[in-house]
Amino acid sequence: MNTKYMKRINPIYQKENVRVLIAVEDPVEMSSLEYLIAGHGFDYRKEDNPVKALKTARVYKPDLIIIDVIKPHFDGLEVARKIKNYKKYNNTRFIFLTESLVLLDKKNPVFSLEDFYIMRPLNIENISRKINTMFEF
To answer: Is residue 8 a part of any domain in this protein?
Structure first.
């Protein structure tokens, strides 16, 4: 990851300033992620469906969105595409939760080098390390 680029985006990434949107359908995963994000001291919002996640993202303007890639009632890639269509959200980073990297099209413009992909089952320590890397903690 280009850390100089991250510093240019927001030179003061302090834990209390980082805004996170957790957008997952599974209540157990939601609870685990909520515990992790709260433990980091981040401000956060949570949504369990894509329509609400998109609306919340537009108002809340998160620095990071942790989102399901594909679930029966949730298409995180579509939400990410819509969010990235707004220029003011170009700096928003994503952690995509997925069962298979085969489903991900790396040529798709929704992906960037600053985004991460986490395979299920979730490893909270791995997610925590990725967040620390994203924001240089």
So the answer is: no
In which domain, by residue range, is 110 found?
Answer: 14-135
In a domain, 78, yes or no: yes
Which CATH number characterizes residue 113's domain?
A: 3.40.50.2300
Give per-residue pLDDT as tens, 89-134: 778 888 988 876 655 555 554 555 456 778 888 888 989 988 888 8
Q: How is residue 137 written in tokens?
A: 């903690």
Residue 1 counted as domain residue: no
Is position 9 within any domain? no
Between CA 3 and CA 11 the distance in angstroms is 11
Q: How far is CA 122 from CA 13, 25, 57, 86, 114, in A?
A: 25, 14, 23, 29, 19
Q: Kindly provide the residue ranges of all beta strands, DSSP E only, lying in the chain, ordered along the sequence.
A: 19-23, 43-47, 64-68, 70-71, 74-75, 93-98, 116-119
Residue bearing the bigger pLDDT, 25 or 20: 20
